[in-house]
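Milestone 3.1: sequence recovery, worked example.
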Protein backbone atom coordinates (compact mmCIF):
# COMPACT_ATOMS: atom_id res chain seq x y z
CA UNK A 1 0.00 0.00 0.00
CA UNK A 2 1.36 3.44 -0.97
CA UNK A 3 1.51 6.43 1.38
CA UNK A 4 -1.51 8.10 -0.29
CA UNK A 5 -3.65 5.01 0.24
CA UNK A 6 -2.45 4.79 3.85
CA UNK A 7 -3.44 8.40 4.51
CA UNK A 8 -6.81 7.87 2.81
CA UNK A 9 -7.58 4.91 5.09
CA UNK A 10 -6.49 6.91 8.15
CA UNK A 11 -8.80 9.80 7.19
CA UNK A 12 -11.73 7.40 7.10
CA UNK A 13 -10.79 5.91 10.49
CA UNK A 14 -10.42 9.37 12.04
CA UNK A 15 -13.76 10.61 10.74
CA UNK A 16 -15.51 7.72 12.50
CA UNK A 17 -14.19 9.02 15.85
CA UNK A 18 -15.09 12.68 15.32
CA UNK A 19 -18.13 14.18 17.06
CA UNK A 20 -20.87 15.91 15.06
CA UNK A 21 -19.79 19.37 13.87
CA UNK A 22 -16.05 18.58 13.76
CA UNK A 23 -14.39 18.15 10.37
CA UNK A 24 -10.84 17.57 9.19
CA UNK A 25 -9.35 19.62 6.37
CA UNK A 26 -6.16 17.61 5.95
CA UNK A 27 -4.16 14.69 7.34
CA UNK A 28 -0.44 14.21 6.76
CA UNK A 29 2.59 12.56 8.27
CA UNK A 30 5.32 14.68 9.83
CA UNK A 31 8.15 12.44 10.95
CA UNK A 32 6.73 9.89 13.42
CA UNK A 33 3.55 11.93 14.00
CA UNK A 34 0.20 11.97 12.24
CA UNK A 35 -0.94 15.59 11.94
CA UNK A 36 -4.67 16.33 11.74
CA UNK A 37 -5.72 19.78 10.50
CA UNK A 38 -9.19 21.01 11.47
CA UNK A 39 -11.26 24.18 11.37
CA UNK A 40 -12.71 23.31 14.79
CA UNK A 41 -9.58 23.00 17.00
CA UNK A 42 -11.50 24.50 19.91
CA UNK A 43 -13.97 21.60 19.98
CA UNK A 44 -11.16 19.06 19.99
CA UNK A 45 -9.29 21.06 22.64
CA UNK A 46 -12.38 20.90 24.86
CA UNK A 47 -12.37 17.12 24.75
CA UNK A 48 -8.96 15.51 25.14
CA UNK A 49 -10.59 12.08 25.21
CA UNK A 50 -11.40 12.36 21.47
CA UNK A 51 -7.71 12.77 20.56
CA UNK A 52 -6.71 9.87 22.84
CA UNK A 53 -9.40 7.71 21.23
CA UNK A 54 -8.19 8.56 17.72
CA UNK A 55 -4.56 7.83 18.67
CA UNK A 56 -5.53 4.47 20.15
CA UNK A 57 -7.62 3.56 17.12
CA UNK A 58 -5.05 4.42 14.44
CA UNK A 59 -2.04 3.46 16.64
CA UNK A 60 -0.14 6.64 15.79
CA UNK A 61 1.17 9.66 17.66
CA UNK A 62 -1.46 12.32 16.96
CA UNK A 63 -0.99 16.09 16.69
CA UNK A 64 -4.02 18.37 16.20
CA UNK A 65 -3.36 21.57 14.27
CA UNK A 66 -5.74 24.38 13.27
CA UNK A 67 -6.51 25.14 9.65
CA UNK A 68 -4.89 28.47 8.70
CA UNK A 69 -8.31 30.05 8.17
CA UNK A 70 -9.18 29.95 11.90
CA UNK A 71 -5.95 31.41 13.31
CA UNK A 72 -5.99 34.66 15.30
CA UNK A 73 -3.70 37.44 14.18
CA UNK A 74 -0.42 36.90 16.16
CA UNK A 75 -0.72 40.26 17.97
CA UNK A 76 -4.28 39.45 19.04
CA UNK A 77 -3.22 35.95 20.01
CA UNK A 78 -0.47 37.31 22.30
CA UNK A 79 -3.00 39.60 24.00
CA UNK A 80 -5.36 36.66 24.55
CA UNK A 81 -2.59 34.34 25.84
CA UNK A 82 -1.50 36.99 28.35
CA UNK A 83 -5.06 37.09 29.70
CA UNK A 84 -5.32 33.29 29.91
CA UNK A 85 -1.92 32.35 31.33
CA UNK A 86 -1.12 33.31 34.95
CA UNK A 87 1.06 36.43 35.19
CA UNK A 88 3.57 34.61 37.40
CA UNK A 89 4.25 32.10 34.59
CA UNK A 90 6.86 34.61 33.40
CA UNK A 91 6.27 34.41 29.64
CA UNK A 92 9.33 35.93 27.93
CA UNK A 93 8.84 35.26 24.19
CA UNK A 94 6.49 34.03 21.45
CA UNK A 95 7.22 32.55 18.03
CA UNK A 96 4.39 31.91 15.54
CA UNK A 97 4.61 29.42 12.66
CA UNK A 98 1.60 29.85 10.36
CA UNK A 99 2.50 26.76 8.29
CA UNK A 100 2.03 24.48 11.29
CA UNK A 101 -0.40 26.68 13.23
CA UNK A 102 1.91 26.44 16.24
CA UNK A 103 2.96 29.16 18.68
CA UNK A 104 6.13 28.56 20.71
CA UNK A 105 5.74 30.11 24.15
CA UNK A 106 8.89 30.64 26.19
CA UNK A 107 8.20 30.90 29.91
CA UNK A 108 10.11 30.92 33.18
CA UNK A 109 7.52 28.54 34.68
CA UNK A 110 6.23 26.45 31.76
CA UNK A 111 4.14 24.26 34.06
CA UNK A 112 1.85 27.20 34.77
CA UNK A 113 1.30 27.72 31.02
CA UNK A 114 0.67 24.00 30.48
CA UNK A 115 -1.75 23.61 33.39
CA UNK A 116 -2.87 20.40 35.07
CA UNK A 117 -3.04 17.62 32.47
CA UNK A 118 -2.62 20.27 29.73
CA UNK A 119 -5.77 22.21 30.72
CA UNK A 120 -4.20 25.64 30.10
CA UNK A 121 -2.91 24.58 26.67
CA UNK A 122 -6.39 23.46 25.67
CA UNK A 123 -7.82 26.78 26.84
CA UNK A 124 -5.26 28.71 24.78
CA UNK A 125 -6.13 26.65 21.69
CA UNK A 126 -9.82 27.16 22.33
CA UNK A 127 -9.47 30.95 22.31
CA UNK A 128 -6.75 31.69 19.73
CA UNK A 129 -6.78 28.68 17.39
CA UNK A 130 -3.00 28.32 17.51
CA UNK A 131 -1.52 25.13 18.96
CA UNK A 132 0.78 26.14 21.85
CA UNK A 133 4.13 24.50 22.54
CA UNK A 134 5.86 25.61 25.71
CA UNK A 135 9.62 25.74 26.40
CA UNK A 136 11.46 26.92 29.47
CA UNK A 137 13.26 30.26 29.64
CA UNK A 138 16.76 29.30 30.85
CA UNK A 139 17.11 30.50 34.49
CA UNK A 140 20.81 30.95 33.71
CA UNK A 141 21.36 32.57 30.34
CA UNK A 142 22.73 29.97 27.93
CA UNK A 143 24.28 30.84 24.59
CA UNK A 144 23.86 27.21 23.54
CA UNK A 145 20.10 27.16 24.21
CA UNK A 146 19.76 30.53 22.51
CA UNK A 147 21.65 29.34 19.41
CA UNK A 148 19.82 26.00 19.22
CA UNK A 149 16.42 27.72 19.37
CA UNK A 150 17.58 30.26 16.80
CA UNK A 151 18.62 27.52 14.35
CA UNK A 152 15.29 25.71 14.83
CA UNK A 153 13.27 28.91 14.32
CA UNK A 154 15.25 29.97 11.26
CA UNK A 155 14.77 26.55 9.64
CA UNK A 156 11.02 26.09 10.26
CA UNK A 157 10.15 25.65 6.58
CA UNK A 158 13.10 23.37 5.97
CA UNK A 159 12.31 21.28 9.04
CA UNK A 160 8.70 20.88 7.97
CA UNK A 161 9.81 19.53 4.59
CA UNK A 162 12.30 17.22 6.32
CA UNK A 163 9.54 15.88 8.58
CA UNK A 164 7.10 15.35 5.72
CA UNK A 165 9.64 13.33 3.74
CA UNK A 166 10.56 11.38 6.86
CA UNK A 167 6.89 10.67 7.60
CA UNK A 168 6.51 9.01 4.21
CA UNK A 169 9.56 6.80 4.86
CA UNK A 170 8.53 5.81 8.37
CA UNK A 171 4.99 4.90 7.37
CA UNK A 172 5.83 3.13 4.11
CA UNK A 173 4.61 -0.41 3.54
CA UNK A 174 6.80 -3.36 4.48
CA UNK A 175 8.02 -5.08 1.33
CA UNK A 176 10.29 -7.93 2.50
CA UNK A 177 8.78 -11.31 3.44
CA UNK A 178 11.85 -12.16 5.58
CA UNK A 179 12.17 -11.66 9.35
CA UNK A 180 15.60 -11.24 10.88
CA UNK A 181 17.47 -8.78 13.11
CA UNK A 182 21.22 -8.22 13.17
CA UNK A 183 23.50 -6.10 15.35
CA UNK A 184 26.80 -5.00 13.81
CA UNK A 185 29.59 -3.58 16.00
CA UNK A 186 31.14 -0.52 14.37
CA UNK A 187 33.03 0.77 17.42
CA UNK A 188 33.20 0.60 21.21
CA UNK A 189 33.55 -3.19 21.49
CA UNK A 190 36.32 -4.42 23.79
CA UNK A 191 37.34 -0.76 24.08
CA UNK A 192 36.06 2.57 25.41
CA UNK A 193 35.44 5.25 22.80
CA UNK A 194 33.85 5.61 19.33
CA UNK A 195 30.65 3.81 20.37
CA UNK A 196 28.61 2.86 17.31
CA UNK A 197 26.26 -0.02 16.40
CA UNK A 198 24.10 -0.81 13.41
CA UNK A 199 20.71 -2.37 14.11
CA UNK A 200 19.36 -3.82 10.87
CA UNK A 201 16.39 -5.73 9.50
CA UNK A 202 15.42 -6.51 5.88
CA UNK A 203 13.56 -3.15 5.89
CA UNK A 204 15.56 -0.88 8.16
CA UNK A 205 19.06 0.21 9.15
CA UNK A 206 19.51 2.36 12.26
CA UNK A 207 22.74 3.60 13.83
CA UNK A 208 22.84 3.60 17.62
CA UNK A 209 25.38 6.28 18.61
CA UNK A 210 28.21 7.56 16.44
CA UNK A 211 31.06 8.56 18.70
CA UNK A 212 34.72 9.46 18.50
CA UNK A 213 37.66 8.39 20.64
CA UNK A 214 38.97 11.86 21.45
CA UNK A 215 42.17 10.42 22.92
CA UNK A 216 43.20 8.62 19.73
CA UNK A 217 45.61 10.16 17.23
CA UNK A 218 44.64 11.02 13.66
CA UNK A 219 46.10 7.77 12.29
CA UNK A 220 43.02 5.68 13.06
CA UNK A 221 41.35 4.07 16.05
CA UNK A 222 39.37 7.19 16.81
CA UNK A 223 36.43 6.75 14.44
CA UNK A 224 33.82 4.02 13.91
CA UNK A 225 33.97 1.70 10.89
CA UNK A 226 31.48 3.67 8.85
CA UNK A 227 32.94 2.61 5.51
CA UNK A 228 32.03 -1.11 5.66
CA UNK A 229 29.36 -2.52 3.28
CA UNK A 230 26.74 -2.92 6.02
CA UNK A 231 26.62 0.87 6.50
CA UNK A 232 27.13 1.99 2.91
CA UNK A 233 25.71 4.11 1.53
CA UNK A 234 25.26 6.31 4.60
CA UNK A 235 22.48 8.14 2.75
CA UNK A 236 20.30 5.02 3.01
CA UNK A 237 20.31 4.86 6.82
CA UNK A 238 16.82 5.15 8.30
CA UNK A 239 17.88 6.93 11.47
CA UNK A 240 20.49 7.66 14.11
CA UNK A 241 19.67 7.21 17.80
CA UNK A 242 21.92 9.02 20.29
CA UNK A 243 21.87 7.60 23.82
CA UNK A 244 23.63 10.61 25.35
CA UNK A 245 25.75 13.64 24.55
CA UNK A 246 29.29 12.58 25.52
CA UNK A 247 31.59 12.77 22.50
CA UNK A 248 32.43 9.07 22.57
CA UNK A 249 28.75 8.51 21.72
CA UNK A 250 27.76 11.53 19.60
CA UNK A 251 30.99 13.21 18.48
CA UNK A 252 30.77 12.11 14.82
CA UNK A 253 27.04 12.54 14.19
CA UNK A 254 27.71 15.77 12.20
CA UNK A 255 30.21 13.85 10.05
CA UNK A 256 27.32 11.74 8.71
CA UNK A 257 25.77 14.94 7.32
CA UNK A 258 29.10 15.90 5.75
CA UNK A 259 28.89 12.66 3.76
CA UNK A 260 25.31 13.10 2.61
CA UNK A 261 23.12 11.69 5.36
CA UNK A 262 19.88 13.68 5.62
CA UNK A 263 17.83 11.46 7.91
CA UNK A 264 16.62 11.90 11.47
CA UNK A 265 18.66 12.02 14.69
CA UNK A 266 16.64 10.86 17.69
CA UNK A 267 17.61 12.10 21.16
CA UNK A 268 16.12 13.58 24.32
CA UNK A 269 15.80 17.41 24.46
CA UNK A 270 18.75 17.81 26.89
CA UNK A 271 20.92 15.53 24.73
CA UNK A 272 20.18 17.70 21.68
CA UNK A 273 21.37 20.83 23.51
CA UNK A 274 24.41 19.21 25.14
CA UNK A 275 25.41 17.62 21.81
CA UNK A 276 25.53 21.04 20.18
CA UNK A 277 27.62 22.41 23.07
CA UNK A 278 30.16 19.57 23.08
CA UNK A 279 30.44 19.20 19.30
CA UNK A 280 31.14 22.92 18.80
CA UNK A 281 33.68 22.80 21.64
CA UNK A 282 35.31 19.74 20.05
CA UNK A 283 35.80 21.66 16.79
CA UNK A 284 37.21 24.63 18.71
CA UNK A 285 39.69 22.55 20.72
CA UNK A 286 40.83 20.57 17.65
CA UNK A 287 41.40 23.82 15.80
CA UNK A 288 43.46 25.33 18.66
CA UNK A 289 45.55 22.16 18.95
CA UNK A 290 46.19 22.01 15.21
CA UNK A 291 44.42 18.67 14.87
CA UNK A 292 42.35 17.55 11.90
CA UNK A 293 38.80 18.89 12.16
CA UNK A 294 36.37 16.21 10.90
CA UNK A 295 33.45 18.56 10.23
CA UNK A 296 32.45 22.20 10.32
CA UNK A 297 30.01 24.06 12.57
CA UNK A 298 27.65 24.11 9.57
CA UNK A 299 27.34 20.32 9.87
CA UNK A 300 26.47 20.69 13.57
CA UNK A 301 23.65 23.03 12.53
CA UNK A 302 22.56 20.57 9.84
CA UNK A 303 22.37 17.78 12.43
CA UNK A 304 20.30 20.07 14.67
CA UNK A 305 17.76 20.66 11.89
CA UNK A 306 17.28 16.91 11.55
CA UNK A 307 17.07 16.16 15.28
CA UNK A 308 13.76 14.84 16.59
CA UNK A 309 13.50 15.06 20.36
CA UNK A 310 11.73 12.33 22.32
CA UNK A 311 10.77 12.45 25.98
CA UNK A 312 11.35 9.46 28.24
CA UNK A 313 8.67 6.82 27.81
CA UNK A 314 7.31 8.10 24.49
CA UNK A 315 6.82 5.15 22.10
CA UNK A 316 7.68 6.34 18.59
CA UNK A 317 7.62 4.75 15.13
CA UNK A 318 11.02 5.27 13.49
CA UNK A 319 10.56 2.80 10.61
CA UNK A 320 7.73 0.61 9.28
CA UNK A 321 9.01 -2.31 11.37
CA UNK A 322 10.60 -0.53 14.33
CA UNK A 323 9.43 1.45 17.39
CA UNK A 324 11.78 3.32 19.72
CA UNK A 325 11.31 4.24 23.38
CA UNK A 326 13.92 6.16 25.39
CA UNK A 327 14.18 5.65 29.16
CA UNK A 328 16.23 7.32 31.88
CA UNK A 329 19.81 5.94 32.06
CA UNK A 330 20.96 7.97 35.09
CA UNK A 331 24.36 8.72 33.51
CA UNK A 332 24.24 12.40 32.52
CA UNK A 333 21.47 14.90 31.77
CA UNK A 334 19.13 13.37 29.17
CA UNK A 335 21.03 10.09 28.91
CA UNK A 336 18.82 7.27 27.68
CA UNK A 337 18.45 3.51 27.58
CA UNK A 338 17.17 2.87 24.03
CA UNK A 339 14.47 0.18 23.70
CA UNK A 340 13.64 -1.06 20.18
CA UNK A 341 10.48 -3.05 19.47
CA UNK A 342 11.14 -4.72 16.12
CA UNK A 343 8.54 -6.19 13.81
CA UNK A 344 5.05 -7.15 14.85
CA UNK A 345 6.20 -8.60 18.19
CA UNK A 346 9.23 -10.27 16.59
CA UNK A 347 11.99 -9.16 19.00
CA UNK A 348 13.01 -6.42 21.44
CA UNK A 349 16.54 -5.02 21.69
CA UNK A 350 17.83 -2.78 24.48
CA UNK A 351 20.96 -0.63 24.20
CA UNK A 352 21.83 0.65 27.66
CA UNK A 353 24.39 3.22 26.52
CA UNK A 354 26.26 4.44 29.62
CA UNK A 355 24.11 4.07 32.70
CA UNK A 356 24.07 4.40 36.49
CA UNK A 357 22.00 1.84 38.37
CA UNK A 358 21.79 3.93 41.54
CA UNK A 359 19.99 7.13 42.49
CA UNK A 360 22.43 10.04 42.61
CA UNK A 361 22.27 13.72 43.53
CA UNK A 362 21.25 14.47 39.95
CA UNK A 363 19.34 11.53 38.54
CA UNK A 364 17.05 8.64 39.36
CA UNK A 365 18.40 5.13 38.86
CA UNK A 366 18.51 3.70 35.33
CA UNK A 367 15.35 1.99 34.09
CA UNK A 368 15.49 -1.78 33.61
CA UNK A 369 11.81 -2.76 33.41
CA UNK A 370 10.38 -3.11 29.89
CA UNK A 371 7.30 -4.69 28.27
CA UNK A 372 9.72 -7.08 26.54
CA UNK A 373 13.51 -7.29 26.23
CA UNK A 374 15.03 -10.37 24.59
CA UNK A 375 18.48 -8.91 23.77
CA UNK A 376 20.47 -6.41 25.84
CA UNK A 377 23.66 -4.64 24.70
CA UNK A 378 25.20 -3.13 27.85
CA UNK A 379 28.25 -1.18 28.92
CA UNK A 380 31.10 -2.83 30.86
CA UNK A 381 33.26 0.22 31.67
CA UNK A 382 33.68 -0.90 35.29
CA UNK A 383 32.87 -4.54 34.68
CA UNK A 384 36.17 -5.90 36.02
CA UNK A 385 36.18 -8.26 39.03
CA UNK A 386 37.66 -5.57 41.32
CA UNK A 387 35.81 -2.54 39.95
CA UNK A 388 33.92 -1.51 43.05
CA UNK A 389 33.08 2.07 44.00
CA UNK A 390 32.47 3.34 47.52
CA UNK A 391 28.89 4.30 48.42
CA UNK A 392 27.87 7.76 47.24
CA UNK A 393 27.41 9.06 50.80
CA UNK A 394 31.01 8.09 51.61
CA UNK A 395 32.26 9.99 48.56
CA UNK A 396 30.23 13.06 49.56
CA UNK A 397 31.54 12.90 53.15
CA UNK A 398 35.14 12.61 51.91
CA UNK A 399 35.01 15.60 49.54
CA UNK A 400 33.28 17.71 52.19
CA UNK A 401 35.92 16.93 54.81
CA UNK A 402 38.80 17.66 52.40
CA UNK A 403 37.24 20.98 51.36
CA UNK A 404 36.60 21.89 55.02
CA UNK A 405 40.18 21.41 56.17
CA UNK A 406 41.59 23.19 53.11
CA UNK A 407 39.36 26.22 53.62
CA UNK A 408 40.15 26.34 57.36
CA UNK A 409 43.87 26.54 56.64
CA UNK A 410 43.29 29.29 54.09
CA UNK A 411 43.98 27.34 50.89
CA UNK A 412 42.34 26.92 47.50
CA UNK A 413 40.46 23.74 46.55
CA UNK A 414 41.10 22.82 42.90
CA UNK A 415 38.76 20.27 41.32
CA UNK A 416 39.41 19.26 37.69
CA UNK A 417 36.14 17.91 36.31
CA UNK A 418 34.29 17.10 33.12
CA UNK A 419 31.88 19.88 32.18
CA UNK A 420 28.81 17.66 31.94
CA UNK A 421 27.65 15.49 34.85
CA UNK A 422 30.51 15.24 37.33
CA UNK A 423 30.79 19.00 37.82
CA UNK A 424 27.09 19.45 38.60
CA UNK A 425 27.17 16.48 40.99
CA UNK A 426 30.05 18.03 42.95
CA UNK A 427 28.38 21.46 42.85
CA UNK A 428 25.27 20.10 44.58
CA UNK A 429 27.29 18.39 47.32
CA UNK A 430 29.33 21.52 48.08
CA UNK A 431 26.29 23.84 47.92
CA UNK A 432 24.42 21.71 50.46
CA UNK A 433 27.50 21.49 52.71
CA UNK A 434 27.72 25.30 52.77
CA UNK A 435 23.97 25.76 53.22
CA UNK A 436 24.01 23.36 56.20
CA UNK A 437 27.21 24.97 57.54
CA UNK A 438 29.31 21.80 57.30
CA UNK A 439 31.99 23.90 55.64
CA UNK A 440 32.64 27.62 55.69
CA UNK A 441 30.95 29.69 53.02
CA UNK A 442 33.44 30.60 50.31
CA UNK A 443 32.97 31.34 46.60
CA UNK A 444 32.76 28.33 44.27
CA UNK A 445 34.20 29.46 40.93
CA UNK A 446 33.19 27.62 37.75
CA UNK A 447 35.59 27.85 34.81
CA UNK A 448 35.60 26.44 31.30
CA UNK A 449 32.38 24.97 29.89
CA UNK A 450 31.01 24.11 33.33
CA UNK A 451 28.84 27.23 33.66
CA UNK A 452 27.30 26.72 30.22
CA UNK A 453 26.65 23.03 30.90
CA UNK A 454 25.05 23.98 34.23
CA UNK A 455 22.82 26.51 32.44
CA UNK A 456 21.54 23.67 30.23
CA UNK A 457 20.80 21.61 33.37
CA UNK A 458 18.66 24.46 34.72
CA UNK A 459 16.73 24.57 31.42
CA UNK A 460 15.68 20.90 31.74
CA UNK A 461 14.89 20.32 35.46
CA UNK A 462 12.25 17.72 34.52
CA UNK A 463 15.17 15.41 33.61
CA UNK A 464 16.67 15.61 37.12
CA UNK A 465 15.75 13.20 39.91
CA UNK A 466 12.46 13.35 41.79
CA UNK A 467 13.95 15.03 44.88
CA UNK A 468 15.57 17.82 42.87
CA UNK A 469 12.42 18.35 40.80
CA UNK A 470 10.37 18.66 43.97
CA UNK A 471 12.90 21.10 45.42
CA UNK A 472 12.85 23.25 42.26
CA UNK A 473 9.15 23.08 41.33
CA UNK A 474 7.41 22.95 44.71
CA UNK A 475 9.85 24.51 47.16
CA UNK A 476 11.08 27.18 44.75
CA UNK A 477 14.73 26.46 45.54
CA UNK A 478 17.09 25.68 42.67
CA UNK A 479 20.52 24.80 44.13
CA UNK A 480 22.23 25.60 40.82
CA UNK A 481 21.17 29.23 41.30
CA UNK A 482 22.76 29.53 44.76
CA UNK A 483 24.79 32.69 45.32
CA UNK A 484 27.93 30.72 46.24
CA UNK A 485 28.52 29.93 42.53
CA UNK A 486 30.40 32.41 40.38
CA UNK A 487 31.18 32.21 36.67
CA UNK A 488 34.75 32.92 35.58
CA UNK A 489 33.81 34.80 32.43
CA UNK A 490 36.98 36.58 31.37
CA UNK A 491 40.75 36.27 31.38
CA UNK A 492 40.94 39.27 33.71
CA UNK A 493 38.65 37.59 36.25
CA UNK A 494 40.79 34.45 36.02
CA UNK A 495 43.98 36.45 36.60
CA UNK A 496 42.40 38.22 39.57
CA UNK A 497 41.49 34.83 41.02
CA UNK A 498 45.04 33.55 40.46
CA UNK A 499 46.37 36.46 42.53
CA UNK A 500 43.67 36.28 45.21
CA UNK A 501 44.94 34.91 48.55
CA UNK A 502 41.48 34.24 50.05
CA UNK A 503 40.26 30.62 50.34
CA UNK A 504 37.96 29.46 47.55
CA UNK A 505 36.84 26.40 45.61
CA UNK A 506 37.56 26.25 41.88
CA UNK A 507 35.91 23.64 39.64
CA UNK A 508 37.42 23.75 36.17
CA UNK A 509 37.94 21.83 32.97
CA UNK A 510 39.64 19.80 31.67
CA UNK A 511 38.86 16.80 33.83
CA UNK A 512 42.14 14.98 33.13
CA UNK A 513 44.28 18.14 33.19
CA UNK A 514 45.34 17.76 29.55
CA UNK A 515 44.91 21.46 28.97
CA UNK A 516 42.09 23.86 29.75
CA UNK A 517 41.93 26.55 32.43
CA UNK A 518 42.66 24.06 35.24
CA UNK A 519 46.32 24.21 34.18
CA UNK A 520 46.44 27.96 34.89
CA UNK A 521 45.22 27.32 38.41
CA UNK A 522 47.66 24.44 38.88
CA UNK A 523 50.61 26.64 37.85
CA UNK A 524 49.49 29.29 40.37
CA UNK A 525 48.68 27.09 43.35
CA UNK A 526 50.85 23.95 42.95
CA UNK A 527 53.58 25.48 45.20
CA UNK A 528 51.02 26.33 47.93
CA UNK A 529 51.02 23.69 50.67
CA UNK A 530 47.76 25.08 52.09
CA UNK A 531 45.86 24.26 48.85
CA UNK A 532 44.44 20.92 47.68
CA UNK A 533 43.91 19.24 44.31
CA UNK A 534 40.94 16.83 44.39
CA UNK A 535 40.43 14.25 41.64
CA UNK A 536 36.79 13.16 41.32
CA UNK A 537 37.04 11.41 37.94
CA UNK A 538 39.07 8.85 36.05
CA UNK A 539 42.56 9.95 34.98
CA UNK A 540 43.60 8.17 31.78
CA UNK A 541 47.08 6.80 31.17
CA UNK A 542 49.51 9.45 29.96
CA UNK A 543 47.53 12.48 31.16
CA UNK A 544 48.92 15.16 33.48
CA UNK A 545 46.22 14.27 35.98
CA UNK A 546 47.28 10.65 36.08
CA UNK A 547 50.94 11.55 36.67
CA UNK A 548 50.06 13.79 39.60
CA UNK A 549 47.58 11.24 40.97
CA UNK A 550 50.33 8.60 40.96
CA UNK A 551 52.59 10.80 43.08
CA UNK A 552 54.76 12.76 40.67
CA UNK A 553 56.10 15.81 42.53
CA UNK A 554 57.40 17.56 39.40
CA UNK A 555 55.71 17.88 36.03
CA UNK A 556 56.92 19.64 32.87
CA UNK A 557 54.93 22.74 31.88
CA UNK A 558 55.31 25.67 29.51
CA UNK A 559 55.12 29.15 30.98
CA UNK A 560 55.30 32.14 28.63
CA UNK A 561 56.83 29.93 25.95
CA UNK A 562 59.56 28.54 28.23
CA UNK A 563 59.64 24.91 29.43
CA UNK A 564 60.14 24.32 33.14
CA UNK A 565 59.39 21.82 35.89
CA UNK A 566 56.47 22.66 38.15
CA UNK A 567 56.90 21.47 41.73
CA UNK A 568 53.73 19.93 43.21
CA UNK A 569 53.55 20.90 46.88
CA UNK A 570 49.79 21.20 47.36
CA UNK A 571 47.88 18.29 48.89
CA UNK A 572 46.65 15.75 46.30
CA UNK A 573 43.51 13.69 47.03
CA UNK A 574 41.35 11.28 45.05
CA UNK A 575 37.65 10.91 45.91
CA UNK A 576 36.10 7.85 44.27
CA UNK A 577 32.35 7.34 44.06
CA UNK A 578 31.22 10.22 41.84
CA UNK A 579 31.28 8.22 38.63
CA UNK A 580 28.29 8.36 36.30
CA UNK A 581 28.96 4.71 35.40
CA UNK A 582 27.78 1.65 37.30
CA UNK A 583 30.40 -0.42 39.08
CA UNK A 584 30.66 -4.22 38.86
CA UNK A 585 28.01 -4.88 41.52
CA UNK A 586 25.53 -2.47 39.93
CA UNK A 587 26.10 -3.86 36.43
CA UNK A 588 25.37 -7.42 37.55
CA UNK A 589 22.40 -6.27 39.66
CA UNK A 590 20.96 -4.34 36.69
CA UNK A 591 20.60 -7.59 34.74
CA UNK A 592 19.54 -9.60 37.81
CA UNK A 593 16.65 -7.20 38.47
CA UNK A 594 15.67 -6.68 34.83
CA UNK A 595 12.08 -7.48 34.03
CA UNK A 596 11.51 -9.45 31.91
CA UNK A 597 14.68 -11.53 32.05
CA UNK A 598 16.64 -11.17 28.78
CA UNK A 599 17.65 -14.14 26.64
CA UNK A 600 20.99 -12.68 25.47
CA UNK A 601 23.34 -10.06 26.95
CA UNK A 602 26.21 -8.58 24.96
CA UNK A 603 28.87 -6.53 26.76
CA UNK A 604 30.72 -3.55 25.24
CA UNK A 605 32.15 -0.12 26.17
CA UNK A 606 34.92 -1.52 28.34
CA UNK A 607 38.39 -2.92 27.82
CA UNK A 608 38.57 -6.55 26.70
CA UNK A 609 39.22 -7.89 30.19
CA UNK A 610 36.24 -6.08 31.69
CA UNK A 611 33.86 -7.05 28.88
CA UNK A 612 34.81 -10.73 29.18
CA UNK A 613 34.71 -10.73 32.99
CA UNK A 614 31.27 -9.11 33.16
CA UNK A 615 29.84 -11.45 30.51
CA UNK A 616 31.18 -14.46 32.42
CA UNK A 617 29.72 -13.22 35.72
CA UNK A 618 26.26 -12.67 34.21
CA UNK A 619 26.28 -16.11 32.61
CA UNK A 620 27.47 -17.89 35.77
CA UNK A 621 25.20 -16.04 38.22
CA UNK A 622 22.02 -15.66 36.20
CA UNK A 623 22.29 -18.41 33.56
CA UNK A 624 21.73 -15.94 30.73
CA UNK A 625 23.49 -16.45 27.42
CA UNK A 626 26.24 -13.82 26.90
CA UNK A 627 28.47 -12.67 24.06
CA UNK A 628 31.41 -10.28 23.84
CA UNK A 629 31.48 -9.02 20.25
CA UNK A 630 34.53 -7.57 18.57
CA UNK A 631 34.41 -4.52 16.34
CA UNK A 632 33.24 -5.44 12.80
CA UNK A 633 31.37 -8.53 14.01
CA UNK A 634 27.70 -9.02 13.20
CA UNK A 635 25.41 -10.99 15.53
CA UNK A 636 22.02 -12.23 14.43
CA UNK A 637 19.69 -11.84 17.43
CA UNK A 638 16.44 -12.97 15.77
Amino acid sequence: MGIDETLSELRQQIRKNLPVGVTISDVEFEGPELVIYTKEPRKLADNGEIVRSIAKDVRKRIVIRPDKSVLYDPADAITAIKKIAPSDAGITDYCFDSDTGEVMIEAEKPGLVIGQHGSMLREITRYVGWTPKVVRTPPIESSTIKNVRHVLRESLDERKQILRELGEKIHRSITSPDNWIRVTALGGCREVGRSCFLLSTPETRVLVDCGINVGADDNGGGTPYLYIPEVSPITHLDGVVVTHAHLDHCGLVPLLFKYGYRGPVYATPPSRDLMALLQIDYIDVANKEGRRIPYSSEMVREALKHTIVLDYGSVTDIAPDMKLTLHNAGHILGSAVAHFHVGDGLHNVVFTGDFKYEKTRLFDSAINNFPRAETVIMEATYGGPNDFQPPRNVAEKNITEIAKRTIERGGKVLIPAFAVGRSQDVMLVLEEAMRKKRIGKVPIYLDGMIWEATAIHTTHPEYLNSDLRNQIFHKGMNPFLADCFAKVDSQKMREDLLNNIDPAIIISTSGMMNGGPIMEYLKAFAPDEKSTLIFVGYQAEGTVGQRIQKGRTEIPITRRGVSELLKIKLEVCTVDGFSGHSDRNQLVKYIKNMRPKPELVMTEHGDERNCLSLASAIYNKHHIKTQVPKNLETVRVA
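The radius of gyration is 26 Å. The chain has a mean pLDDT of 92.
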